[in-house]
Design brief:
about 130 residues, mainly alpha, globular
Amino acid sequence: MAHDPSEYDIEHPPSADEWLAMDESERLALVTRAHARSRARVGSNAAAHAAFHVIVENRLAAGHTVVVNAYERFRASGVNRHNTVHALASVATQHVLAVLQEQPGFNQEEADRDYEALDPAAFAGNR
């Protein structure tokens, strides 16, 4: 993947090494511009939408085992990459919200269990 934000394509995974070498703001710009270019729906907050995409891409690029396994499970079941990223982001969103609602801290073990339990069938309409 080139560092040109216009070349990011959510349906094709970025090079892990190139992705991790980028500054976080560049990653956010890549995702934001890709969504604008494709006219993909981003909800009421495009910045938050992009941030959760980046969280998932970061975990995938870093090779976080449970996230990679969930990703592979979704893709093998026929869910497209964009919706797979959204499914994985749903777990991240749930756990960030828990921290914002005064959970003492981010619980990685609990998040990992939720990634493992994430069911592609729940996203069957998003293939």
